[in-house]
Design brief:
alpha/beta, 5 helices, single chain
Length: about 160
C-alpha cells in the first residue's frame, strides 16, 4: 500500500481498510434484511460491509425470496438467519430496521434508519419482485450516501 492509499483509505486498528458497516434488521431475518444485505454486498464491491440479523430469527430464509434473488443472479446459499445483538449494532456505522420496531436494541452513537418495507414472506413472485425493487432503490441510494464516489453497476432488475 502506498502513502497515497493510506491517505485515501484509512485503516482500523486491525489494519483492515475502514469501510462502513451496515446492519439490516427485521424480525425473522428471512426476507427484507436478507434482500438488503445481499443487494448491498453485490453493489458495494467491498466498499461497504453489510450484515443482516433478526430479533426473532427463523430457521431459514424465505424460499420465495431465495428463488427470486437467485433468478436475479444473486447467491443466497450462505444466508442463514442470525440473532440481532447489541454487539452487532455497536460494531456498525448504521442500523437499518425493516419492521422490527421497538424490539431492536438501541446503541448510542449508531445511526438508525427505518425502511417501511412490506414483508415478502409467503408472497407470490410478482410481489416479492416489487419488494426487491423497493429495497434495490433504497440500497443504491444508501451506497451513494455512504460512499459518494462509488461507481454502481447496473441494477440487477435491469438485467432480469
Amino acid at each position: 500500500m502506498t502513502d497515497t492509499d493510506l491517505a485515501t483509505s484509512p485503516e482500523t486498528e486491525t489494519g483492515q481498510p475502514d469501510v462502513p458497516q451496515v446492519v439490516f434488521a427485521c424480525i425473522r431475518n428471512g426476507g427484507r434484511s436478507v434482500i438488503s444485505r445481499v443487494l448491498t454486498e453485490h453493489y458495494a464491491g467491498g466498499r461497504v460491509r453489510a450484515l443482516s440479523a433478526g430479533t426473532q430469527p427463523g430457521e431459514h430464509i424465505h424460499a420465495e425470496v431465495a428463488e427470486v434473488l437467485e433468478k436475479l443472479g444473486l447467491d443466497t446459499s450462505a444466508e442463514q438467519p442470525k440473532l440481532l445483538t447489541r454487539e452487532t449494532i455497536a460494531t456498525s456505522t448504521m442500523a437499518i430496521t425493516l419492521g422490527c420496531g421497538e424490539e431492536c436494541p438501541y446503541v448510542p452513537g449508531v445511526k438508525y434508519i427505518d425502511w417501511p418495507v412490506s414483508d415478502p414472506g409467503g408472497q407470490d413472485e410478482a410481489t416479492v419482485r416489487t419488494i426487491i425493487a423497493d429495497i434495490d432503490g433504497r440500497v443504491r441510494n444508501l451506497l451513494i450516501e455512504l460512499v459518494p464516489d462509488i461507481d454502481l453497476p447496473a441494477s440487477v432488475l435491469d438485467q432480469a
